[in-house]
Specification:
This protein has 214 residues and is of the alpha/beta class. The chain has one domain: 3-Layer(aba) Sandwich (Rossmann fold), CATH 3.40.50.300. 41% of the residues lie in helices and 17% in strands. It has ten helices and eight strands. The strands form two sheets. It has a six-stranded mixed β-sheet, with helices on both faces. A two-stranded antiparallel ribbon has the order 2-3. α3 runs parallel beside α6. The radius of gyration is 17 Å and the shape is globular. The chain starts with 9 loop residues before the first strand and ends with a helix.
C-alpha cells in the first residue's frame, strides 16, 4: 500500500474495520515495523525508528482510545507532551492549545481521569500538539462522543490544520472526515482501493453506499 500526505493537507483514511487504518498509523509512528515498504518523512527514512525518535522527527500520534495519563492533572498531561523539548516555544504552544480548547483552560488543575470523554479527547489532541508536530496522526477522534462534541472536535481539527499542521485522519464517520479533508484514501484489507479529492470521493456512488449509508 503506497500513499502520501503533502505538507499542509488533511488526508483521511477510510475503510471498514480490519482494513488496516490503525495499523497504518502505528507503522508511521514506529509502534509497528513494516514487513515491506517503508515510511519516509520529507525525504528521510523513518523505517525501523523507535516511537520516541519518530516524535522527535515531527510526528505525533493521537491513538484510538485517547490514552491520557489518568492520574495526572490536565496541565501535567500537556507538559508531558513537551517533555523532550528544550526550545523556548513551550509556553507559547501551551497558550495555543488552551485557546484551541478553552474547556481545558478551565480544568488545568483537574485530574485527567475525571474528565468527560469529550474533554479527554481534547486533552489527547492538545497533548500531541505540545510536541510541536509537523504531522499529526489522529485515530478515530470522534469515537464515543455526542454529536455536538463531534462537530466541535472536527471544527478544531480544521483550525489546527489552518494554523499549519499537516494531518492524517482515520475516522469511521466518513461524512465528517470527507467534509474536513482535502484528499482521502479508501483502504480494503491493507490495499488502497480508491483515492482522490475528498469532495470527489464524497460523490462517488460506491463510497456513498459503503461509508455514507446511502
Amino acid at each position: 500500500m503506497a500513499f502520501g500526505v503533502e505538507r499542509g493537507e488533511i488526508v483521511a483514511l477510510l475503510g471498514n474495520n480490519g482494513a488496516g487504518k490503525t495499523t497504518t498509523l502505528k507503522t508511521i509512528s514506529g509502534l509497528l515495523t513494516p514487513r515491506t515498504g517503508g515510511v519516509v518523512l520529507e525525504g528521510e527514512s523513518l523505517t525501523g525508528r523507535p516511537p520516541h525518535e519518530v516524535v522527535l522527527k515531527g510526528i505525533a500520534h493521537v491513538p484510538e482510545g485517547r490514552r491520557i495519563f489518568n492520574r495526572l492533572t490536565v496541565r501535567e498531561n500537556l507538559l508531558m507532551g513537551a517533555y523532550r523539548r528544550r526550545d523556548a516555544g513551550i509556553a507559547g504552544d501551551l497558550e495555543r492549545v488552551l485557546t484551541l480548547f478553552p474547556r481545558l483552560r478551565e480544568r488545568l488543575a483537574q485530574v485527567a481521569g475525571t474528565l468527560s470523554g469529550g474533554e479527554q479527547q481534547m486533552l489527547a489532541i492538545a497533548r500531541a500538539l505540545m510536541t510541536s508536530p509537523r504531522l499529526l496522526l489522529l485515530d478515530e477522534p470522534s469515537m464515543g462522543l455526542a454529536p455536538v462534541l463531534v462537530e466541535q472536535i472536527f471544527e478544531t481539527i480544521g483550525d489546527i490544520n489552518r494554523q499549519g499542521t499537516t494531518i492524517l485522519l482515520v475516522e469511521q464517520n466518513a461524512a465528517m472526515a470527507l467534509a474536513v479533508a482535502h484528499r482521502a484514501y479508501v483502504l480494503e484489507t491493507g490495499t488502497v482501493a480508491l483515492s482522490g479529492a475528498a469532495r470527489d470521493l464524497a460523490e462517488n456512488p460506491d463510497v456513498r453506499r459503503a461509508y455514507l449509508g446511502e
